[in-house]
Amino acid sequence: GDQEAGEMGLAAVPGRQAAFRQGLAAAVQYAKAVGCPRIHLMAGRVPQGADRAAVAGEMETTFVENLRYAADLLAQEDMIGLVEPINNRITDPCYYLNTPHQAAAILEKVGRPNLKLQLDLFHCQIMDGNLSRNLETFFPLIGHIQIAQVPGRHEPDSPGELNFPYIFQLLESLGYNGYVGCEYAPKGDTLEGLGWLQSYWESRGLQCGGTSKATE
């Protein structure tokens, strides 16, 4: 979409289906060029001036139709489409897709195996909390995990509500073997902001890069 015009994705925005398909085609080309097999299909915002409840049905219908189109296109490229709930309490009051429960219901209606849930634990904690149970419940749908401390959205070892060593061990116990995206704003520079990861690896008996000291 047109970010300068206030758009944040188009997949659920009525009347913008042609623009969504055009953007998707471009995203596929970028993804192929860099070898990335997953594309975030952003739902978009409730149209300005519209009542969320009044347009919810039309937006869901648009979302489902666009996601089916996207899934079929991505399947030809052996790619995965991702949908991410973004909290509407702090980050974006107008974003359409807000909770993993809503996302799971949408994915069930779409019914395509190559569409998955992009679960950002920052947004999930703000909207619903109950992270352990939510990770267990929605684990079969998860295609990507993102992390940030709550409420500051900084490094996982910054002060906040979430116990990331526990969460990482839970993900391991569930069998998660995908990427964990660092979707946070570093308090300082990027490299300094990765110090938490070095400390975490050392606490697990690992060296930089996740290699076990015992095997070297």
Automatic annotation (TrEMBL):
Tell me where in this chain the Xylose isomerase-like TIM barrel domain is found: 9-199
Q: Name one GO molecular function term.
A: hydroxypyruvate isomerase activity
List where the protein spans the membrane. Answer: none
UniProt KW keywords: Isomerase
Q: Which GO terms describe its biological process?
A: glyoxylate metabolic process
Q: Name one Pfam family in it.
A: AP_endonuc_2
Q: Does the keyword ATP-binding apply?
A: no
Q: What is this protein called?
A: HYI isomerase
Organism source for this protein?
A: Probosciger aterrimus (Palm cockatoo)
